[in-house]
Write a sequence for this structure.
């Protein structure tokens, strides 16, 4: 590992009207290292990255690149100094090809026209050099999320950047693709690139990162060498206190079967799946992205009308053709993609909390506002959601608090079966732990919970049983006592 | 008893709170409206005429047609759609209602009902196509706009269908007490629309579908039913506007309502509703409609050349939306920082 210091940010301050977003933050990145930034949502990670990327300007403080003081005032400056940022949200143009996206804004030109032949050739060569199996001529919208993420990374690298920032790059890709991503990262660091890595997943730190800097409430807390620290120590630094019982789970046996599915198929992703869930049980669903887990749940919730197979609830066969049917049968689904499938961004916490249960408090033709506020407050309290008021637009809350409102929305329907699809994606450590505790309470009260998750530790620590899916089929079921990460992987990637 | 009293009190509190919010949310355009009114009241040319009861009622009478459309259009735009057919519906509904009286000697009530139903039918048709297919609302309503306009010309052969009975004029040109009839109808329509938007489940669902259709579906909302309702309502409003206008003009005219959809959209947008859907208020639309109506009236009183009126109106729309944009930008910045 080369030890030259690539980047230094010293004493960075940033205020927004009324808020001190960054207080005297220091950060250092060496050539050839992967340096993680850890911190809960709102800790100031994004603000720091945005200052580095020229989206915000610091009020105070200096930035040095390879020892030279630089002034980054706009995005263009950052690019000039060899800084590339891969944002959490993909910023590719869906109706353009992979090559067009990679060369967007700097297309090879011949005689005033875009030299398409050269562009595709170069793009393909770039893609191939990372051993990725994507055609430069594919349309972005035809790629999977994981493939899109790879394109984004290749695009960032193609600027020959010295400093690469990755903001939660693994939040939407599967284990196998994560491996591939890590390999790519190692290739880059071997060439002397410095990588800043932002992630909520503690388990990834040991695998890929050399050092880690922890931030909390806009302040710099400390920097550690990953090999010399423990998860517990890092979590304590992040939340400012010891987090006892990160996972809360009282395992329990012998509830009666409440949900039984037989031979469910949707003619596309789900191929003849049978399983059952008992009262008071948390049943995990493991598998790679594309294994058909979310699609299976969409059948159960009536979002896929064209499915075959039988669903039994409490021993009775039921027909579910719409979400309204599913809700009537006592099923609730907290979807995978909060932003796309769950939130009404500009609307208030109140609006978001009660949209499913409105019909329960209609007085005459009007929504009973007082009753609505009572219910909203009840679920804010129960989930300990942190929001300035129930009229706050939900889009302004942190990921963890948004997710709490989403779960509260569905608990308000008093479901018998709660399906949680990636319940802690984009949720910070503190809120994660709280969500686990709530899941445990719900299971104890007799609710049946189905949890789809790509996070192995959470599946293993929370589930009574784990069904593993691969290419639309269930390839195995592991009990809490016998489950290990290796066993799951073996079943998931046959 | 005590409980009832306290609940009554908090009802008042809710209402007060609502008015406060309405005021705060629309501060920019309310000020614009006041400035416009004050300017017209002090200007030596318009001072004598503008602030007379007769002129105010006259303005409101003219505005009513646009605000009928704007009520429907507010819903449509919050839903994330657009309805271009409303202007043509005015023509068709007016012509058919007038024709029913003049050509078939049908009773007035039946004729007016026909007019309204014409609007409702086209709205329902828009609703069916838009909710059942993925054809963009812009295209669907562009088509029905042309169809409705064409049918109005076909039916009338291009010339107005005149109605000369006194009863016919009541709806658009008459008075209830000393208040013009269309103003009374307008107030009723505004109240009904405001209740739907702010109080009912359907209102909530309109915001939900406009804000995030996929999330709405995941929430068990029947998205197609909401779309169907909104386009039907917009058509109904246009039908109503059609008969009121035909009554005011003593005739059904195939050229009536030309470009009216654009004035309605302008009122909605000046009123602060987002073209992206999911956000907006009927309270803003009312002020937007008033600004455009009073501006028209003021320019007429000032004897401004009607060609120039278009230019000024366009500039005012742009200015109003721009001020709103600046305010939103500011608000966003402050809110982000709270995080």
């Amino acid at each position: 590992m080369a030890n030259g210091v690539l980047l230094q940010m010293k004493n960075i301050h940033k205020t927004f009207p009324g808020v001190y977003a960054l207080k005297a933050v220091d950060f250092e990145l060496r050539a050839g290292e992967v340096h993680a930034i850890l911190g809960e949502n709102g800790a100031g990670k994004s603000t720091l990255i945005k200052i580095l990327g020229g989206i915000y300007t610091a009020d105070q403080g200096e930035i040095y690149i390879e020892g030279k003081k630089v002034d980054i005032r706009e995005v263009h400056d950052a690019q000039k100094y060899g800084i590339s940022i891969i944002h959490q949200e993909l910023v590719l143009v869906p109706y353009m090809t992979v090559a067009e996206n990679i060369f967007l804004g700097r297309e090879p030109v011949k005689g005033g026209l875009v030299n398409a032949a050269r562009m595709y050739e170069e793009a393909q060569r770039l893609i191939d050099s990372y051993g990725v199996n994507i055609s430069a001529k594919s349309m972005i919208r035809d790629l999977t999320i994981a493939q899109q993420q790879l394109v984004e990374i290749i695009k960032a690298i193609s600027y020959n950047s010295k400093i690469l920032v990755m903001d939660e790059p693994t939040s939407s890709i599967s284990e196998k693709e994560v491996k591939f991503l890590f390999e790519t990262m190692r290739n880059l660091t071997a060439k002397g690139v410095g990588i800043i890595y932002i992630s909520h997943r503690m388990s990834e730190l040991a695998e890929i990162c050399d050092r880690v800097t922890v931030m909390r409430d806009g302040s710099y807390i400390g920097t550690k060498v990953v090999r010399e620290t423990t998860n517990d120590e890092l979590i304590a630094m992040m939340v400012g206190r010891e987090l006892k019982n990160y996972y809360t789970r009282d395992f329990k046996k012998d509830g009666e079967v409440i949900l039984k599915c037989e031979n469910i198929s949707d003619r596309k992703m789900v191929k003849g799946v049978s399983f059952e869930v008992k009262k008071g049980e948390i049943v995990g669903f493991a598998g790679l992205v594309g294994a058909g887990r979310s699609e299976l749940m969409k059948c159960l919730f009536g979002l896929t009308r064209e499915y075959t197979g039988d669903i039994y609830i409490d021993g009775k066969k039921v027909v579910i053709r719409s979400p309204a049917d599913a809700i009537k049968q006592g099923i609730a689904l907290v979807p995978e993609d909060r932003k796309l499938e769950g939130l009404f961004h500009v609307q208030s916490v109140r609006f978001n909390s009660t949209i499913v249960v409105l019909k329960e408090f209609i007085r005459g033709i009007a929504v009973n506002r007082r009753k609505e506020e009572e219910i909203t407050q009840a679920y804010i309290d129960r989930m300990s959601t942190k929001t300035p008021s129930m009229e706050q637009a939900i889009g302004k809350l942190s990921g963890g608090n948004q997710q709490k409102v989403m779960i509260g929305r569905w608990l308000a329907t008093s479901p018998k079966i709660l399906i949680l699809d990636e319940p802690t994606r984009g949720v910070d450590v503190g809120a994660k732990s709280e969500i686990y505790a709530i899941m445990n309470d719900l299971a104890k009260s007799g609710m049946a919970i189905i949890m789809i998750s790509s996070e192995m530790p959470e599946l293993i620590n929370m589930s009574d049983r784990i069904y593993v899916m691969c290419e639309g089929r269930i390839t195995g079921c592991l009990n809490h006592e016998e489950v290990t990460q290796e066993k799951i992987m073996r079943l998931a990637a046959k | 008893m005590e409980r009832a009293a306290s609940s009554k009190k908090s009802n008042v509190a809710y209402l007060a709170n609502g008015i406060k919010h309405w005021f705060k949310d629309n501060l920019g355009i309310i000020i614009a409206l006041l400035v416009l009114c004050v300017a017209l009241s002090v200007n030596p040319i318009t001072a004598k005429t503008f602030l007379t009861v007769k002129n105010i009622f006259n303005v409101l009478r003219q505005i009513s047609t646009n605000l009928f459309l704007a009520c429907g259009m507010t819903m449509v735009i919050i839903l994330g759609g657009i309805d271009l057919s409303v202007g043509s519906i005015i023509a068709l509904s007016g012509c058919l209602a007038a024709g029913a009286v003049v050509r078939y000697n049908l009773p007035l009530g039946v004729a007016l009902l026909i007019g309204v139903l014409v609007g409702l039918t086209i709205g329902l048709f828009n609703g069916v196509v838009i909710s059942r297919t993925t054809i963009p609302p812009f295209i669907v309503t562009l088509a029905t706009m042309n169809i409705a306009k064409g049918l109005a010309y076909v039916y009338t052969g291009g010339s107005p269908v005149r109605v000369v009975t006194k009863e016919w004029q009541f709806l658009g040109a008459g008075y209830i007490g000393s208040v013009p009839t269309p103003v009374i109808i307008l107030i009723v329509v505004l109240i009904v629309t405001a209740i739907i938007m702010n109080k009912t489940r359907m209102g909530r669902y309109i915001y939900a579908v406009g804000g995030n259709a996929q999330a709405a579906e995941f929430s068990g909302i029947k998205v197609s039913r909401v779309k169907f309702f909104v386009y039907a309502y917009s058509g109904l409003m246009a039908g109503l506007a059609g008969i009121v206008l035909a009554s005011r003009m003593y005739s059904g005219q195939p050229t009536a309502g030309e470009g009216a959809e654009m004035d309605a959209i302008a009122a909605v947008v000046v009123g602060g509703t987002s073209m992206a859907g999911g956000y907006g208020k009927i309270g803003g639309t009312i002020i937007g409609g008033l600004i455009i109506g009073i501006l028209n009236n003021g320019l007429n009183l000032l004897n401004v050349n009607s060609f120039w009126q278009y230019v000024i109106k366009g500039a005012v729309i742009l200015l109003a939306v721009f001020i709103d944009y600046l305010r939103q930008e500011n608000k966003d910045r402050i809110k982000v920082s709270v995080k």
